[in-house]
Design brief:
There is one protein chain. The protein is built from 10 helices and 2 strands. The chain starts with 16 loop residues before the first strand and ends with a helix.
Length: about 280
C-alpha cells in the first residue's frame, strides 16, 4: 500500500496545527519549499544514477555517432547533412531523458519506491523535476561530442554549438516529462520500458532522417514530436545567416511542451502515489 503524500490530503498535514499532550496546540514545521526540495532531489538522483547511467550514456553517444557515419554516404546536400547532425545530437537526449526515465519511474512504481518519496515533506513537482533534471544532465557530454563529431564529419561550422546550451535543457524537459509520465502511468514496468523504447525510436527515425524525403503523413507525425523543434532550432543555426526569430520560436515550442509534459508527469506522480 502506498503512503499518501501529506500535501495531497485535505487541509494539508504539513504546516497545520497538532494537539500536544495536555491539550496544548503545537505548530508543525513548515512544508519544504519547491526549489530547495528540487535541488535536494536533483543532487540525490545525480549521485544515485551516476555509476549506473554513464555506460548507457556511452551507448547513446556511440549509437548517434554510428548513425551519422552510416548516413554520410546517403545524404546528397548540405541541408540534409544539417538535419542528420542536429537529429543525431538530440537523439542522445531522447535516449536518456525519455527512454531511461520511463524505465526508472516504471520500476520505481512497481517496486514501491514511490512510498519513500511520498513520505518526504517535499512537493510532488520537486520529485519529478529533480529526477528529470538529473537524467537530462547526463545527456550534455554525449550531445556535445556527437554534435562536434557530426560537424567535422559533414564539414559543417562549429561556431554555433553554443545553441545546444538552450536546446539540451528545453528538448530534455519536454522529453523527460513524457518519459516520466509514461513510467508513472504504465500499469506494469515492462509496458513503461516499451513506451520509452517506442518514444526513443520515434525520436530517432523522425529526427535524424531528412524531412524532405518523408511522406506527408510522416512529416505530420514528425511535427507532433516535441524533440523535432529542438532539432529544427539547431539545424537552422548552420546557415550562413540563421533566422534567429524562427530559432527562438522553435525553442519556445520546446519550452511550452516541456511545461505541459512536466505538469502531466507531476499529476501522474500524484496519481501513482495515492494508489
Amino acid at each position: 500500500m502506498s503512503v499518501v503524500p501529506a500535501d495531497i490530503l485535505p487541509g494539508g498535514a504539513l504546516g497545520a496545527q497538532a494537539t500536544a499532550p495536555g491539550g496544548a496546540v503545537a505548530e508543525l514545521g513548515p512544508r519544504a519549499r519547491l526549489w530547495p526540495s528540487l535541488a535536494a532531489v536533483y543532487r540525490a538522483q545525480l549521485s544515485r544514477a551516476r555509476v549506473a547511467r554513464i555506460p548507457l550514456l556511452f551507448v547513446a553517444t556511440f549509437q548517434s555517432v554510428g548513425i551519422m557515419i552510416m548516413m554520410r554516404g546517403v545524404v546528397d546536400n548540405r541541408g540534409e547533412a544539417q538535419s542528420v547532425v542536429a537529429g543525431s545530437s538530440v537523439v542522445v537526449v531522447a535516449f536518456v531523458a525519455l527512454n531511461l526515465l520511463a524505465q526508472y519511474f516504471g520500476q520505481l512504481r512497481a517496486s514501491g519506491g514511490l512510498d519513500h518519496y511520498a513520505t518526504l515533506p517535499v512537493p510532488p513537482a520537486s520529485v519529478v523535476l529533480g529526477a528529470a533534471a538529473a537524467y537530462a544532465s547526463f545527456t550534455v557530454p554525449g550531445t556535445l561530442v556527437t554534435a562536434a563529431f557530426g560537424c567535422v564529419l559533414f564539414g559543417l561550422p562549429l561556431g554555433n554549438l553554443w545553441i545546444l546550451v538552450a536546446v539540451i535543457p528545453l528538448a530534455g524537459a519536454a522529453l523527460a516529462g513524457l518519459g516520466a509520465a509514461c513510467g508513472l502511468l504504465a500499469p506494469r514496468p515492462e509496458l513503461a520500458t516499451l513506451l520509452g523504447q517506442l518514444g526513443m525510436s520515434a525520436a530517432l527515425l523522425l529526427g535524424v532522417l531528412p524531412p524532405d524525403r518523408m511522406p506527408e503523413i510522416i512529416r505530420f507525425a514528425r511535427d507532433l514530436l516535441p524533440s523535432t523543434y529542438g532539432v529544427e532550432a539547431y539545424a537552422r543555426t548552420f546557415g550562413a545567416r540563421p533566422d534567429w526569430a524562427v530559432v527562438l520560436v522553435d525553442l519556445g515550442v520546446c519550452a511550452a511542451v516541456g511545461v505541459v509534459s512536466l505538469a502531466v508527469a507531476t499529476w501522474a506522480y500524484r496519481r501513482a502515489a495515492v494508489r
